[in-house]
Give the backbone structure.
Amino acid sequence: MAPPIKETCPSGKIVRAEDAEEDADDSVNQIAGFQGTFEQFALDCSAKGKEGKTWSETYPGIVFPARLQHLADEPFSCALGNGISDRDALTKANQEILRSLEGNTLPTGADGDDREVTFGDARTGVIQALYSESLWATLATGLTELKEGDTAGVLMELADQYNERTPEGHYDPMLQAFTNIRCTDENSYGDKPDIEKLRDLAKRFDDAGPFQSASVSPGIYDYCDFWKFKGTLPKPQHLTAVPNILVVSTSHDSATPYASGVKLARTIDGSLLSVSGASHTSYMSGDEAKACTDVTVNGFLTKGALPKTGDFGPKLPKPDTAVDDRGDTITLPTRCKMETFRADDFMLSKDTVHAGDKVLASVKHLDPETSFTVAFETGGDFGSLATDNGGNAAAQVKVPKDAKPGTYVVQLLDADGKTVANTTLTVVGDDDGKGDDGNDGGSSDGTDDDPKGGGDEPAPGDDGTSDGATGDSDGNDNNGHGPGDLPRTGAEIWPLLAGAVVLLTAGGVVYRASRRKGGAAH
């Protein structure tokens, strides 16, 4: 059993300390995500290098600049090496190619472009290509060009995409807006951090993402360290009766790491769609292999329906794995995987009780023949449940006698002490309006004071049966919402929601912030 929950939000929503606190090393964690995505590219590139195909056959539709047109009909060879499965070796190969520019810039080779390509430019180009698998062919070309040692224009083109530079040499004003927003939100007020701490951060950053590291990790001040403006973001609000929120997290997403998506879904009692892929986000990617993502999200947005829990979509040639925020390995045998952290799967027969009362606890759609603990916020346990072979269970549990009046979160914990689902319970005193007639749901003034709120109004024609498309044999379209589907409503979200949403955008914001520093990110 895990140690007692340590953090309680003022509103009553509780989470474990590690879920409540923002990680001080977000930039380090994120470059580790980019390292993982780079390794996916490198393994793919190296495997293609031993197939004996030409460049054009390896990457159908690839367009070469005039200076590299000779590659089209040549046998494809990965600049990182062919047939190599050692990730460290592939990482070192990339380091060597990039570091060839340290103190030795190269021309772009493009007509009318007299810029010199630096190490920072090339590194930025590599990072840009890791945002989408559709750019891997361009990255392979750019690394090959740089390795040949005459020009490096392809990587500069990728860097220009990253920096949103037009062919005329103009930059999108979003860069300035982004700088303003990021530095203001950081609220440094111009207080410069200790330079030794910056150097330590730079070293840990490069240790986590060695594919992009220079020979020396310098550690320098960021322009936000000199920013004097103060942020004015409002404080988190107490939210109740919030409907289900769907979080989509991609297994090898570089900019928004997979683990952050899992953490967000768990924190807000939402639903999680895990997608196998190595691009930054998966929805509307244009990749037919990820169609199960589009179908799921579109079904949720238009009908409020989600697939049943479990794996669905096209079967992968080889099962994919990802690590969640708690260090557990998640296996994806198919392109998509659905799971939920919704409280709807865990219910108590009463919303309002006295200390020492007994209530009926029930669960559904969980792991079959598994034991769970019903844990009370104050540290005591209600009791336990054991699911049948269908994953359902019901048992009478008891509210701790020492529970003080107030609204509490009750958690369903697995054998490892990890939260499976949450719900809420209001404990009242002897004179708080709880009569003996069995009507426990209202407040003393007769109004409905249920902190969990009610469900959504059913959509027109929604009689509880599936009005969506039913799944076919391989699960490509599993958007019906008949019995066994994920619940849509009734969960409670507290002030932590505002902080949790940051996790979803942390990858796109924190790393995008770092990449605005010329690609050095430290």
User: Anything to note?
Assistant: The two ends are 40 Å apart (CA to CA). The mean pLDDT is 77. The first helix runs from residue 17 to 20. The CA atoms of residues 441 and 450 lie 7 Å apart.
